[in-house]
Fold these 4 entries.
Entry 1:
Amino acid sequence: MKQRDLNANELEDLQQSLLKWFKEHQRKLPWRENYEPYQVWISEIMLQQTQVKTMLPFYRRWMEALPGIREVAEADEELLIKLWEGLGYYRRVRNIRKTAEMICNEYGGQFPEQVAELLKLPGIGRYTAGAIASIAFNQPAPILDGNVTRVLCRVRKIEDPPQLGDVGKELWRLAEAWIPKEEARNFNQALMELGATVCLPSSPNCLLCPIRQHCLAFELGKVEAIPASKPGKVPRQRYRACAVIRCNKKLLFSKRLENSLLEGLWEFPSVESDTKKKLKGTLEEHLERNYGIKVTLGKEIHQLEHRYTNFKTRVGFYPVTLEVPGKKSNETTSWVEIPKIEDLALPRPYRRFIEWYLEQFRN
DNA sequence: CAGCCGTGGAC
DNA sequence: TGTCCAAGGCT
């Protein structure tokens, strides 16, 4: 059931109330100091499916190492991935690199200001293009993310699941129609800021909300029920066995393939399966076939759970010490001296294991 | 369009 | 311990 739209006076009041609230209550964030397009861009990529609190340390470290887009275009890919270590969704950092090269080579180092141009850049979709156009250049381009979706659904009492195609179209329409033409930067940020700090998914602070007098969900006591949540999928269980191979104070690492989970990061030589059955034997075969290493693995020394979008993987670690290394290292396998391991970009759970492991045999 | 891509935090 | 979700994009 669709509500009538806000009339001009109601919309005007909502806009002014929200802008006033944002002016007073916005968080101090680094890219808000001067809204440099480069900084806005990096912040928006980091913020994809990631909360401010989580990305802030990564953002600061990134800007210290790479203060401008030229530095990104000329940087070593290994450095970029290392700076991204722990943030997840590693495809994002590869796309940052590609976009930096495109802007330096095809746009003279200047960020395009039009949504249509921004959309041509890898890693920049409808949301991010609108965010850069509005936040960096104050253009009246709409944005629709999880926060804005929640705020709009509640204010307008949209009870159908927002992922439905027609609902999405309506939300984009509202997101555009509500923007005060001269205040796009502050208004778009205000919508998101409200969603992130007040209009929370559960237990929202409605009494602190500057636009609750316009909110139909609040008026009708349906705030907790809107937006409708989609039925979650049960993550599948998988098992992985990792070989921790030590030789002359070095450990053997393998680089993960592109276009795969955790692409471009390093890990231990390992095998994965739907069942735990014969996993250790499979790993031994794997080591002989792909690394020229014929060994009998020791007892499992550690176990952890690696959870990601669709899977929960039980990871076991099997140690072995070699007198001589097997096959020579190549681009995807490398013997790494123990102190140099911190230079590798590793998935978080493996980084944590190594810290634990090295601590063990210091004793 | 449904599935894929990470991780930490809140509850 | 389990579940959900977060400033999405891409295939």
Entry 2:
Amino acid sequence: MSVSPTPSAGPATDAADPDWLRLDRQICFSLNAASRAFNGVYRVLLKDLGLTYPQYLVMLVLWERGALPVKQLGEHLRLDSGTLSPLLKRLEGAGLVRRERSASDERSVRVTLTGEGTALRERALEVPRRIAAATGADPAEIGELRDRLDRLTGALDAAVRELEQGPAAR
Amino acid sequence: MSVSPTPSAGPATDAADPDWLRLDRQICFSLNAASRAFNGVYRVLLKDLGLTYPQYLVMLVLWERGALPVKQLGEHLRLDSGTLSPLLKRLEGAGLVRRERSASDERSVRVTLTGEGTALRERALEVPRRIAAATGADPAEIGELRDRLDRLTGALDAAVRELEQGPAAR
DNA sequence: GAGCTTTTGGTTGTGCACAATTTAATTGTG
DNA sequence: CACAATTAAATTGTGCACAACCAAAAGCTC
């Protein structure tokens, strides 16, 4: 591969080269740190709105798409019911959404914005600008980073599918 | 800015332009998704070792630096005792580390690798290579992404500090 | 229509992140 | 020495992520 050989040590055990573990840590670690740092900024900015960051994501989808069943909400956000069910109950408890069984399909639960939930959008409008300011990067750079992350996510998801069902061959 | 104006609607309220919320969602959302996708790959690769991803990070630090007090472990990983204490107890329960009060400073708890914990390193050596393969990117691209994320994290952390103590002025 | 599979949500349990509080040991100051 | 302030961990409580499992409702097939 195109991995540059370690210029320093290790003639003896190439596989035990500590650099492998260090390099790796920095990749995954950097992403983890960035994710949590982002979370920290959102935590501060959303405190006034009474929302957590995942709750904000749910509200964004509802503001953009209107009422949705839980299933579709989960598809937009890549979250399953184990995460969404309690989250939506808290949003309902806060008076921002209603959850009501569909009449046509009793299995489906439709999530609808209340008046209060719709009104909250006004106060959320300035959040993106403040986030952009916090990143200290211009929109073009942010866009490039986003594309790169999306490609990475696609590759990682594909790798997981391959790892899980590839070797076992079902 | 380079944000393309919405071709469709909204002449009335510029501040209510839905694009702001959409664009924003994609930045934070992409990072969140990438972080969780990475977590998914690690989950699969680390299952054999009996480690979760944060536990793996702790082990990486210990393999690299040797025994450390909880405080320093937390500084390396940006994690506090609320996260580390139960995590370390689980690692101790798995027989990978020991936790012992320092003799010189009874407040401090020193985390030490057991023989089993040290031995586990051998089996972890192949993880980075498999992660790199899963990303589908060459090391140079990964390195660039890492630098970008680190810069982003720095800017976000600075923004949080400013938001929290700047306005209030202590 | 009886019986099977699929779909949709919910529940439970484990583990992590983080804020807030608590305890014990140490340090600093009079 | 007494006493306040600081420090290191632990604990508690809330919320999210995800796996595993369950239940009810549709949809199918014969």
Entry 3:
Amino acid sequence: MAGPHTLGETERQVVDRVGQLPLDYAAMAVVSNLFRASNAVRNHLERTVLSSQNMSWTAFVVLWVTWIWEPIETRNVALESGISKATLTGVLTTLEKRGWVTREKSETDGRLVLVRMTPAGRELMQALFPEFNLEEQRVVESIDAGTLDTFADLLRAVTASVEPAASSPDEPPSSQDR
Amino acid sequence: MAGPHTLGETERQVVDRVGQLPLDYAAMAVVSNLFRASNAVRNHLERTVLSSQNMSWTAFVVLWVTWIWEPIETRNVALESGISKATLTGVLTTLEKRGWVTREKSETDGRLVLVRMTPAGRELMQALFPEFNLEEQRVVESIDAGTLDTFADLLRAVTASVEPAASSPDEPPSSQDR
DNA sequence: CCGAAGTTGTTCGGGTACGAACAATGTATA
DNA sequence: TATACATTGTTCGTACCCGAACAACTTCGG
């Protein structure tokens, strides 16, 4: 959405198409670059780090969430990973098939399913995550270290303005799939 | 990846799992929040604006790129949209099926395919894009107006650090699929 | 207690999403 | 002007990705 063309050039072209409609170009720039950056980073990390394990970005995120919080209920895995519960079902099946996680029905609540790492899954993450973090570092290396926290806060502000409900930590907002 | 848990709480838990390995938590926060924000905004816009046309985010981006730059070669649509050419083939088939764009072989180069809007496609974008931009505005409304440009620049810096090659505008970097 | 209302994970259908392999086409080299 | 080399869009296989509908289960109101 912000490809090889100049900013001004794109804007001029947009004005030509939209006509006199008033547009917020600053907001447009942020949203389009948000996606460009997100896509670029995901694909980069998939190619440099995750491809060695034939793993997708989402699979890695789910594995990471499970690694950090296990045992964890699937609804919370979906919440933490930022994917829908429908998507999670498929991803978990994949991860289970590869022997990295296990599913287990809750004893106290028959509706819930708990996810745990296998030893193989834990070994994998112990080796893979430092490598992943090193590449994360490379992705932001051109940005002044003192600015990184501000950057993260700006991103949190965007997320918050879209997902208003967020009561207290450790107590997810009532019930939404994502 | 940065769900209902506190920042410090997640960090403490990560330390517990990773052990003594040195990690860049600032970089980690930026990358994970980049994806959280990106996902949240995409899903929000799909639900609020795009669902009326039963359109996905990617379909909208492709339609937008075509709208702004038509007639445009498919390789450049993929480049501007930030998706692979393989993905584009499927999306274009969908958009063509719905009567919003057309495919046309280039007369000067038999390998190229040109994409154009149909009148119906143009009408749709003329109505949909202002609505879309209004929602983009809402997504960043909590951010100080003077900071938006800086924000966009930070996002561009991330993209640039991952996709280093970028010669001159109007002249895509030799040949990469995305 | 017992039916209504709510919650949870799965299934289903349609649509992305990628890399690799491919055939068609264009270009460069000798 | 052949013959290698490069480029382009499509196809293929596999893996997401979501909303809607669903069955299993829990909880709440009377």
Entry 4:
Amino acid sequence: MRSQADGRKVRGERRRTEIIEATLRVIERDGVAGVTHRTVAREAGVPTSSITYHYATLDDLLIATLISCARDMATEVYWMIDRARSREGLRRSSDSTMGGPSAADEVSALLAEALGPRRGRTMAEYELYLLASRRPALRPAARRWLDVLTSMVRHDDEVAFRVFLAGIDGLLIQGLIDDEPPSAAELLPAVEYLLKPR
Amino acid sequence: MRSQADGRKVRGERRRTEIIEATLRVIERDGVAGVTHRTVAREAGVPTSSITYHYATLDDLLIATLISCARDMATEVYWMIDRARSREGLRRSSDSTMGGPSAADEVSALLAEALGPRRGRTMAEYELYLLASRRPALRPAARRWLDVLTSMVRHDDEVAFRVFLAGIDGLLIQGLIDDEPPSAAELLPAVEYLLKPR
DNA sequence: AATCTACCTGCACGATGGTCCAGGTTCACA
DNA sequence: TGTGAACCTGGACCATCGTGCAGGTAGATT
């Protein structure tokens, strides 16, 4: 009855997600330019025509990848903000200098990680993001993670939060063209300045 | 004698710059993915093999385009900063509210222009910029305009200026995925917040 | 005039790309 | 067990790509 149909569907979905994950790996390694039916198929270990079967066109595949990627990004940044906030709250309540990492420390560490070990992933995300600016079909997916983030801040903070996110974006993009990824310590001053209240 | 040889060389250089300009137009229209020997040749109105003759490989062509583009960007942002500064100086010296656009107005207008009429150009710049993060050969060219800009600020401003540039980058990139390019008025609050001194 | 050299181009080759489709397999259901 | 629909795949078609090269041209040199 249901279990069979679900098993069928689950298996179909599983292959789809495998393809998506393979696509993301290809983008991380070779960029969006390296995404072809054949490279993705080889990466996923599935026949070439399986890609065209599940995703009619390459654009569909990229859209699906971007959506999946956006979800990951949103949840990730969500937790980053959450942690930064609780630290900030702690810091304010206990007034002055105390042990433990500050919000700026936390954010700097995450940026350093995004530019170091997770560099490929960061590049992939911005490539997809930029691709969205060229193809309207991708824009809703690209906007989603921004919307998710902005929807969870108080309204009187909206501008400050938007500038904060813009600053993060800028620091990441500028960090991507460094030969050596910047350390958290090098990023700290900029992040501190960015977080400093007006 | 010299004049003849120079005339020859000038003509050669002229064709080269024509190819570069055509490449930039192609990137503005179709993105880096649309750059092929043939598309660029058609855009420039030259035979296909002329591209391979002047630029051994496509990478060389992209590098040359990025260098040319970086020079334009640097000079452009230079004047933006220059104007913003003089406005700021004027504003500080005459203390409070007065007629004329503020620095934030000026910057917002430029951002709105970059996201509106010059949208294609802005996309092209960021695509090249992101491409540089993947190909080390392009990085020096991509870093140049950042270096030019950071070299012309006083040292005690360095962090603030870097954050300012990062914020600009972020606002531009986020603005690129809007269906309707944001107006200067919409951008103004964020720019004002970004410019607000700590 | 003869020659040389740098400059340029048409053309074709091999590789790779997206896309399509006829046919095979699996599985719920009658 | 038969049947139909959903699922999947090997293989081929045609377009386009990067690249190399034989050959052509125009100005410089002798």
